[in-house]
Design brief:
This protein has helices at residues 10-23, 27-54, 57-65. With 79 residues, it is mostly helical. The chain is elongated and about 60 Å long.
Length: 79
């Protein structure tokens, strides 16, 4: 495990301390979770961008054309 020295403005440190207390965790745990969530969000965004570039409108429309044109079940209607 690594150690990281972090400088935070006082107002931000106060907010982190309050949130950690509310969540019943240490400041370290709260910051670790926040960093993990941010990394996950950024990696997901990157993954989706790469997948989107592989997409094909033509292939999408070909698959969509195979869907039967039927009315939805009663429980699945939007009205």
């Amino acid at each position: 495990m690594s150690t990281l020295s972090l400088r935070l403005p006082d107002y931000l440190h106060d907010s982190v301390r309050e949130l950690a207390e509310q969540e019943g965790v240490s400041i370290n745990q709260l910051i670790t979770l926040a960093v993990a969530e941010k990394i996950s969000a950024l990696k997901t965004e990157d993954y989706l961008e790469k997948r989107a570039k592989r997409g094909s409108r033509t292939k999408y429309e070909a698959v969509l054309a195979k869907v039967p044109d039927v009315e939805p079940e009663e429980y699945d209607r939007l009205d």
